[in-house]
Amino acid sequence: MDILFLCHRVPYPPDRGDRITTWHFLQHMLAEGHSVRLGCFREEERDAAAVTFLRSKGAEVEAPMLSRGWRKMWSLRGLLTGEALTIPFFAHGELRAAVDRWCAAKPPDLIYVYSSSMAQYVLGRKGCPKAMHFAELDSDKWLQYATKSGWLGRWIYGREAKKLLAFEDAVARDFDLSIVVSEVERELFTRRIPGVNPEVLPNGVDVDHFRSSGDSERHPHTLVFTGVMDYEPNVDGVQWFADECWPQLKASHPDARFLIVGSRPNAAVKALAQRAGIEVTGRVETTPPYFDRAAVAIAPLRLARGVQNKVLEAMSMGMPVVSTPEAAQGLGDVPAGTLSIHSQPPAMVAAIRELFDSPVRARAEGRAAAEWVRDHFRWQNMYERLDTMLLRLGLPARPQHAPAGRAGDPTASRR
């Protein structure tokens, strides 16, 4: 097939949630022999090397620079036009011209869009099947932000949630296929956008990359959290944990350590490093060595939906994970003894203390978690589910001339 693939960020390296997903499905399409024209945005200088890499893999790439500071100002015109601020933020004349040129010169067999904000480039376009990979409804993210903000934030975020939901509704009805990441998201989607029944395609995990090297470096009273550390749900989660849980853990286990591993820590996250036992790493080359230093992984997110890559990666590493319900809800029915879920600080602290004090139990729970994730969330399973969805659109899952195989992932999990 000839595929037009649109996403809001250069899908490489796979060092954050959306990049992990878009990279894996993009490289699957390339490995299956499809021709891919990729439209996305560069956000920083290192993205130029990523574009070069993607072109070397066979993709045709159009990736104009998106200045987030300027775009935030530009997006305010949505207050005048009545549209969601997200839409003008991602509206770019250069990319629109490229999409129009591609579709005129050689109409694609499939248009595949990741993130509803990118649907504006093909909304209303006819002539081929269109798949919209929502993952989760972005409008609900803004609604969650509104509930935890002051009066001005409630108004701005509440407006964005309402306007963006209207846009998502229009997109879902225009596209032939809507994709969400979990059954929880499907239930929310069908309530908010009645009459459209989305397909469920969870995130996967690279089970070969996220494999423990052993316990030789493991500290029995160390916690680890991984994620991009200027992303509001991650910032809110680690701050909440540091304020509400960490003092009690440090009091009962004076040698306890808390590793916050991830790129672009903002000022609030950096300030946490001033507290006893907390280390903020900033960007690291790869995360598995940090999992292997810890006894327990945590996912204390309060603003979250969908399937959290950080939870899948920790479980694949054989880590016992203590999570909030928000961070775990996308996983579905998790077997007992593989994930500890708590909403209140006392229960979360008690669960971590038990794992600190029972290393044999902690390792057993970690092994059970790894086995479950490897059975249910390896990427190959997700590729097969995607191919089945495309077959339902009347598209071939694999051209007969194409070899089966993987494109390779040399730099997975940089944070």
Largest sheet: 7 strands, parallel
- The CATH class of the largest domain, by name, is Alpha Beta
Distance linking N and C termini: 33 Å
Q: Please, what is the average pLDDT? A: 92
Low-confidence regions: 399-414
* Total individual domains: 2
The strand count comes to 13
CATH architecture type of the largest domain: 3-Layer(aba) Sandwich
- Helix tally? 18
Helical residue percent?
Answer: 40-55%
In one word, what is the shape?
globular
Structural class: alpha/beta
Adjacency order of strands in the biggest sheet: 3-2-1-4-5-6-7
Radius of gyration: 21 Å
Strand portion, in percent? 5-15%
CATH topology of the largest domain: Rossmann fold
Q: Please, what is the CATH homologous superfamily of the largest domain?
A: Glycogen Phosphorylase B
Q: TL;DR?
A:
This protein has 415 residues and is of the alpha/beta class.
Commentary on this structure:
- With 415 residues, the protein is an alpha/beta fold.
- 45% of the residues lie in helices and 13% in strands.
- The protein folds into two domains: 2-204 and 379-392, 3-Layer(aba) Sandwich (Rossmann fold); 222-376, Glycogen Phosphorylase B (Rossmann fold), CATH 3.40.50.
- It has 18 helices and 13 strands.
- Strand 6, helix 9 (183-192) and strand 7 (199-200) form a beta-alpha-beta unit.
- Helix 7 (138-147) packs antiparallel against helix 8 (151-174).
- The longest helix has 24 residues, at 151-174.
- It is globular, with a radius of gyration of 21 Å.
- The two termini are 33 Å apart.
